[in-house]
Amino acid sequence: MAVTLVPIAESGNRRGLGYNIIMAYFPAILHNQIMNEIKLNGSWIIKAPRDEVYKIMTDFENMPRYFPKVAETLRIVSRNGNHLSIDAKAKSFGRAIPVHMETELMPPVGFKSDNKSNLGTSGHEEFIMEEIPEGTRINYSYDVKIDNPILRWFGRMLIGWYAMRFWEHAVIDNLKKMLEK
């Protein structure tokens, strides 16, 4: 790829030479909104009744006890019917990150949550369950938007490849240990 350096006065762009160089080399990363978003999906079967899975997965204040690898603290700030506002410290890549969650409980099916972190990510999470003869099928999805341009560089690889494997180990495996007899 050839890069032509154009003086700012000639280009009409007042953002600076560094910006012009970055935009010449990385237009897809910085301009394409699709690159900002990662869609995570997973489906698992727990050999336990849906009500038991629902009780644990919606007991948000005890998440740090049930799932210590993903939650350090969780506090329900307000509750209005099935709508919860939650402040949490989620564990991600070995660090505790403040997260605010606007969560809608959907008894007995699961929950949906819009989350925003101080790390520069936000997302829409859905934890939906269905009863099946073997127990409960969990369908989990998380649409993550990476707002932080620096995190965006590695985010697709780390979040896309690592996140669901980690979540399965930290959440699903613990659910199985707690509920499967």
Largest sheet: 7 strands, antiparallel
Can you write the helix and strand succession as a string? HHHEHHEEEEEEH
Reported CATH architecture of the largest domain: 2-Layer Sandwich
Write down how many β-strands occur, each being a DSSP E stretch of 2 or more residues.
7
CATH-assigned fold name of the largest domain: Alpha-D-Glucose-1,6-Bisphosphate, Chain A, domain 4
Number of helices: 6
- The dominant shape is globular
- The level 1 CATH classification of the largest domain is Alpha Beta
Spatial strand arrangement across the major sheet: 1-7-6-5-4-3-2
Mean pLDDT: 82
Instruction: Estimate what percentage of residues fall within beta strands.
Output: 35-45%
Task: Give the low-pLDDT segments.
Answer: 1-13, 17-34
Describe the protein's architecture and organization.
- This protein is an alpha+beta fold.
- The protein folds into two domains: 1-31, no CATH class; 36-179, START domain (Alpha-D-Glucose-1,6-Bisphosphate, Chain A, domain 4, 2-Layer Sandwich).
- It has six helices and seven strands, in the order H-H-H-E-H-H-E-E-E-E-E-E-H.
- A seven-stranded antiparallel β-sheet has the order 1-7-6-5-4-3-2.
- Strand 3 (83-92) and strand 4 form a beta hairpin.
- The radius of gyration is 20 Å and the shape is globular.
- The model is unreliable at 1-13 and 17-34 (pLDDT under 50).
